[in-house]
Amino acid sequence: MVFFVPHVQAQKITLADVVAKGTFRPKTVEGLRSMKDGLHYTTLEKGGTEIVKYSYKTGKKVATVLSVADLKIDSLKQITDYEFSSDESRVLLMTDKHKIYRRSFTAQYYVYNFTTKEVTPLSTKGRQQLATFSPNGERVAFVRDNNLFVKSLRFGTERKITFDGERNHIINGAPDWVYEEEFEFNKAFAWSPDSKKLAFMKFNEEAVPTYSFPMYKGEDPTLMKNRLYPSNYTYKYPVAGEPNSTVTVHVYDIKSRTTLDVDLGEETDQYIPRIRWIPNGNELAVFRENRLQNKLDILFANPFTGDTRKVYTEENKRYIETDFLDNLKFLPDNKHFVITSEQDGYNHLYLYDFSGIKVKRLTDGDYDVTKFYGYDPDRKLFYYQAAAESPLRREVYAVSLDKKKKYKLSKKEGTNDAAFSNGFKYYINYFTNVSTPMYVTLHDYRGKLIRVLEDNAALKQKLADYQIPQKEFFSFKNSEGVELNGWMIKPLNFDPNKKYPVVMTQYSGPNSQEVLDKFSVDWYSFLAQDGYVVACVDPRGTGARGEDFRKCTYMELGKLESDDQVDAAKYLGSLPYTDKNNIAIWGWSYGGFMSALSLEKGAGIFKAAIAVAPVTNWRYYDSIYTERYMRTPKQNPSGYDDNSPLNHTAEIKGKLLLVHGSADDNVHLQNSMEFAEAMVQAGVQFQMMIYNNRNHSIYGGNTRMHLYTMFTDFLNNNLKK
């Protein structure tokens, strides 16, 4: 596969280029919103200071919808995000965003009225979360301090509709930490289509155990508050087997100002991962899932009585993937819905009616549908993304309701994704492969190219001035005869007669994928330039290869994945141009868990490993993620302990660098501290670095440069000396 050919005086990549400066980061089209007419879209441009309107038909700019400079508001210098009201007469502007966890944040919101040209703060009584227009555009709902509020834009009044919100006890309208992280959402309320009701979820965290960690002065002196002792951050975090929040669903009536409870059944140790109104607004759909996450009911709730009826049940002998939640879409006929399901061994689209009867399977084949975009009722077409041609790639397709017509809309081989207009008349295609930076194009519904929106020509020109080692794909069979996919980057000026040290990177978590046909110039390019063979292998348990491949790690996280990484190291070490005595493996989070476990199980195979923020025993990790794949510790003790890095430290023969952030709210520092203690008692020497006040991503200030400099020095010291 051809990459960029360096000329004689080509520059070399620096560590700062790939870690701090973003020298090779492709541009894309961001902040895109399809407008109500389906003929135009808007984007956020000029560093968040302008909202610009474009024509889908021509791809050309039509107007600047809003400029921050024209508003002349001192506290509004930059727009972080925005949302139009349904009639587009108003727009909500978000600014001053302060992150809480991965998806949650507080912000300041402003409402701009295009008719009166007035801009007003949504509220002056404190920062807000999740501000959302009602469908008629007359009100905005938002969360503050764990309570729900409704702002009337006509009268300027702010009404508090819940009163029991309390930190680490009750949350209204927003998920708790574990729901946000593992069910992948941050808004737990929804307006009814007629704007008369507001459905919301209430999280009672009282029984959930707390976790605490100290916060030091570090980069932010305000954390010390002029005291000599560190502050202590405490929040609710249910580890595997411990109590979760009790979640209830309620419907608030705007006119009567009353709230009713939705009947969720007698079981309380369960999950409510989504609520969603059906299109006509007559009923509220509630997703109810058991704690083992292998049975999920779709309930329809009467918003006037709270009574519910079960419409559909999805069951699986292992577990239900979370992509089921957002791929389920109700059709505008208010009679049918579409799901993605693995009921035939691969993830495919199925059409059901509101009585729960399967109408038909919409897609077929030995491949996975990876995303469902939606249904166009005018053309009777279903749009979706799939890994139909290769698990390494993604294509965009349309299939007709009668299945007689199927269109492949994406034309280029690589990784494709799409954003459709309202009405599905147009779409924007996002394409990349290993030799092509992000390439963004505008198309009509038949796939016809209208305009190139971003070709990253400037980046391509820049790349021509650098020495960029190429990435190539390979596959091999593990010791059990299972074929695994990988990519490899060989050193510049590669000499097949030399022996090069090897750095293996991986993540390896359930349904993840690192071996994909997409562009990147990153730390791995830098290492290859410096004389390393860099390789990545997706083990069993990863995505886009059918349910059995994806779920074979059930109840034994780490076992097969680490076996495969050890086999991958043996395969790489057998190549004529690699040095089998100088192989390292590294990873972050699940990948850190895998690095530590592979170093233990591959004693003598790996000379070194880097484990960043690793889970070292799944007993320490959160309930939703862990139990989905492992059940509870009580039900599956051997699954938790047999492949825990804590229990195999005496087998470590190579060098280990252990890294963690002291304020990691996701994979707690406890994992690394217990691992370090086990190694100390086993007499294993290792290196360890704790980053002050840093979360799971370990960034901020000069942190990333320090981190990757340390990684590079560790590899050089252990694989090259």
From TrEMBL:
<dbReference type="Pfam" id="PF00930">
    <property type="entry name" value="DPPIV_N"/>
</dbReference>
<dbReference type="InterPro" id="IPR050278">
    <property type="entry name" value="Serine_Prot_S9B/DPPIV"/>
</dbReference>
<dbReference type="Pfam" id="PF00326">
    <property type="entry name" value="Peptidase_S9"/>
</dbReference>
<feature type="domain" description="Peptidase S9 prolyl oligopeptidase catalytic">
    <location>
        <begin position="525"/>
        <end position="720"/>
    </location>
</feature>
<dbReference type="InterPro" id="IPR002469">
    <property type="entry name" value="Peptidase_S9B_N"/>
</dbReference>
<keyword id="KW-0645">Protease</keyword>
<protein>
    <submittedName>
        <fullName>Peptidase S9</fullName>
    </submittedName>
</protein>
<dbReference type="InterPro" id="IPR001375">
    <property type="entry name" value="Peptidase_S9_cat"/>
</dbReference>
<keyword id="KW-0378">Hydrolase</keyword>
<feature type="domain" description="Dipeptidylpeptidase IV N-terminal">
    <location>
        <begin position="85"/>
        <end position="438"/>
    </location>
</feature>
<dbReference type="InterPro" id="IPR029058">
    <property type="entry name" value="AB_hydrolase_fold"/>
</dbReference>
<dbReference type="InterPro" id="IPR002471">
    <property type="entry name" value="Pept_S9_AS"/>
</dbReference>
